[in-house]
Amino acid sequence: MMRWSVGLVAEGDPETDAVVTLEEVVELADAVAPSSGIATGGGSVRYGAQIVVAADNREEAIERGLAEFESAVRKAGLPVYPIVHTEAVSELEDAMDESV
User: Fold this and answer.
1) What proportion of the chain, given as a percentage, has pLDDT over 70?
2) What pLDDT does 44 receive?
3) From CA 74, how far away is CA 78, in angstroms rounded?
4) Could you give the domains of the chain?
C-alpha cells in the first residue's frame, strides 16, 4: 500500500447554485485536515480539496479520496455539487517529478 495525494473539485451551476463563501471553505479545510488535506475555493460555485490516502492503486486512491471528500463536504455543510475533476498522484510519482 502506498500514499496518494488525491485532488477533487466540485462545481455547481453559476446560474442557479449558491456561491461558496470563504467561511465555508475554511470549514471544508477543517474537515479535511485529519487526512493531511487542504481546501480551495470561495467566491464562486466551485470548491475542492487535496487529500492524502493510502491505497494499492490509483483507482482505489480516487475511491477513498472521494469518500473522504464527500464526508468532509457534509461535515462542512457545503452544498453538494457534482465532482468535475479528480486526480491522484502517488508518492513515487511525486518523488520522480521532483528529481527531474
Assistant:
1) 95
2) 94
3) 6
4) 2-99 (3.30.70)
Q: Is residue 89 predicted with pLDDT exceeding 90?
A: yes
Q: pTM of the predicted model, to two decimals?
A: 0.90
Residue partners of 49: CB distance under 8 A and separation at least 6: 7, 8, 28, 29, 32, 37, 38, 39, 40, 69, 72
CA dist., res. 35 & res. 20, Å (int)? 22
Judge contact between 47 and 24, C-beta under 8 A: yes
Residue of 12, 77, 5 whose CA lies nearest to 37: 5
Region 7-24: mean pLDDT is 95
Q: Is the pLDDT of residue 5 over 70?
A: yes
